[in-house]
Design brief:
Strand order of the largest sheet: 8-10-7-11-9-12-13
Bound molecules: adenosine-5'-diphosphate, magnesium ion
Strand content: 25-35%
Structural class: alpha+beta
Number of helices: 10
Order of helices and strands: HEEEHEHEEEHHHEHEHHEHEEE
Helix content: 25-40%
Number of strands: 13
């Protein structure tokens, strides 16, 4: 390595953000020390991105950094937590300073925009892998789990689903589009927008929540299972982007929207008597939410067309150990 580990941390990771009064000791000691404000709880999540598994070799360093942090922020959002601190365990085959400068730029752009502070980490040599642990804060007892839904609660999803999976097909060379659309879908894949503000706002209204990382049906199934329930989704209600609609056949589009991963939208359930208040609150928000179905007492996620006919999806989502 042209720079040693100590120099590397000092150059690319230390002192890149404003100080935070809750960080008593940040990068540079054996461990970090942070304050948890009275009346609040820590919410902790970890996610790793490995080259060749979670992103193709050759993905831009700033995009990798953005996504590694974004997926963790999305998990915090799904708990209704506000981002606070994170650690970064970076494993690289070599210390390429051009790559590190780009990585650091992408990382701190999102970190600063999301008000989360890097407080430590680890730097090792090996196949490229980025492991982030993110810590968020909630008022005591207000975190939203997957397990709080009841039969009859409405199911909603934020934004639109399917674009991430379309981006992946472009990245893999299986789909080609004009330049502008290409960039749009690749941005959706590589630079997801974690729904942080939406998540913390929803926490006051929803009964259960999950972020959509593996595919809408797969993730809704996890929420339903955790709640001891099933769900029924009306497929024509599932929100897709106008650009996706312009490119894909209806059948392909449904498949991408229901089973494609990498969307990082929020899927949540709302008690019927809370829906009006929630929709009122949502009016000032730039991210739309759409009602796509209802929680049911029967296990499993069933998909139906508008006329009530059952729709059988070919595949439900992504599983790292089972294809
Ligand atoms: P130790 O040997 O005590 O584990 P290290 O030399 O690994 O300490 O790390 C020195 C300091 O730099 C620690 O505070 C650690 O949290 C921080 N650090 C190491 N790697 C990173 C990184 N990639 N990003 C942020 N902080 C890091
Ligand atoms: Mg160490």
């Amino acid at each position: 390595m042209s720079v040693n580990e100590f120099e590397l941390i000092a150059r690319y990771f230390t002192g890149r953000q404003d100080t935070d009064h809750n960080v008593i000791l940040g990068i540079g000691d054996d461990a970090a020390v942070v304050n948890v404000p009275p009346g609040q709880q820590l919410v902790v999540t970890a996610d790793t991105l490995n080259e060749g598994i979670h992103f193709p070799a050759g993905t831009g360093a700033a995009d990798i950094a953005h996504k590694a942090l974004a997926v963790n922020l999305s998990d915090l959002a799904a708990m209704g937590a506000s981002p606070a601190f994170f650690t970064l365990s970076l494993c690289m085959p070599l210390a390429d300073e051009v790559w590190l400068a780009e990585f650091s730029r992408g990382l701190f752009a999102l970190a600063t925009a999301s008000d989360i502070r890097l407080i430590g980490g680890d730097t090792t040599r090996g196949p490229l892998s980025i492991a982030i642990t993110a810590l968020g804060l909630v008022s005591t007892g207000t975190a939203i789990s997957r397990g709080g839904a009841r039969a009859g609660h409405a199911v909603y999803v934020s934004g639109s689903v399917g674009d991430g999976a379309i981006g992946l097909r472009i990245a893999q060379g299986e789909l080609t589009m004009n330049g502008e659309d290409n960039d749009y879908f690749l941005t959706r894949l590589h630079r997801p927008s974690p729904r942080i503000r939406l998540g913390t706002m929803l926490a006051a209204h929803v009964s259960a929540m999950i972020d959509v990382s593996d595919g809408l049906l797969a993730d809704l199934d996890k929420l339903a299972t955790a709640s001891g329930l099933g769900a029924r989704v009306e497929v024509s209600a599932v929100p897709v982007s106008a650009r996706a609609e312009a490119y894909l056949s209806h059948a392909e589009l449904l498949h991408m929207a229901l089973a494609g991963g990498d969307d990082y939208e929020l899927c949540f359930t709302v008690a019927p008597d809370r829906e009006a208040a929630l929709l009122q609150q949502l009016q000032g928000f730039s991210v739309p939410v759409t009602r796509i179905g209802v929680m049911t007492a029967t296990a499993g996620v069933e998909c139906v067309h508008a006329d009530g006919q059952v729709y059988h999806p070919a595949r439900r989502g992504y599983d790292h150990f089972h294809h």
